[in-house]
């Protein structure tokens, strides 16, 4: 007769079955704990935790304090230190995640009350006319993209940066997406480019970029010129980094941002970042009459992305304006 064991709420089951159920319970627990995160997210959480460590050390409270008072004090401490409300909110949520991962029972009222305090700080700063942080990256216009591309020299680095600008704008790329492209991920067709981003914030995607009408903003032309000049290995990086004008290996997401910012600075544009290409495609496409779904698919935005809604609102507020046609 098979040996019996207690399992669950006192139920007798065969020992072999009990082992199987125990293994299943382990898998279920692993599934509950499974939360894949990108390298950027992990770096962000690590940075947020470092800020939290500084905070508790300065105010003299336990490191693993998950109470409402600890979170409210964090907002006040960061606010007095001159941090922007958006930065404080990110730090606060990141610290809460790290605390939970350390087994701390974070009181639900902590982040809630802290968020209300952040809103109060944002309103006070607005009333006082004080702006903290660099703010949102401005959307790159087609005219600005053309200026930046045209100003780049026809050197190997200049050809690379022109390809970064035009391919990045055309696919509304995140910096990490461009940095992680392999040369074979960019497929040249008669109609333009098919770019296979193997992974991203919303998963893999393959946006199509049509041939450009202007020589300085044509992604296909820019990519072909760069790929030929750099003699890219199909299985190697799509974009390389340079050290004193010598190619040294794959570029980083930060390197993408630097290339865009440098090209903007060269033509006198202020505040342009790598994200400006992404915002620029969204606004330019909306101005051209494209609908929300088409733009969301091109840029890999989530169906209800608040960020995309904000980009489109910038355009829509003029296209359908309540003050138009009323005799003002």
UniProtKB/TrEMBL annotation:
<feature type="domain" description="Tyr recombinase">
    <location>
        <begin position="135"/>
        <end position="324"/>
    </location>
</feature>
<dbReference type="InterPro" id="IPR013762">
    <property type="entry name" value="Integrase-like_cat_sf"/>
</dbReference>
<keyword id="KW-0238">DNA-binding</keyword>
<protein>
    <submittedName>
        <fullName>Tyrosine-type recombinase/integrase</fullName>
    </submittedName>
</protein>
<dbReference type="InterPro" id="IPR011010">
    <property type="entry name" value="DNA_brk_join_enz"/>
</dbReference>
<dbReference type="InterPro" id="IPR002104">
    <property type="entry name" value="Integrase_catalytic"/>
</dbReference>
<dbReference type="Pfam" id="PF00589">
    <property type="entry name" value="Phage_integrase"/>
</dbReference>
<dbReference type="InterPro" id="IPR010998">
    <property type="entry name" value="Integrase_recombinase_N"/>
</dbReference>
<keyword id="KW-0233">DNA recombination</keyword>
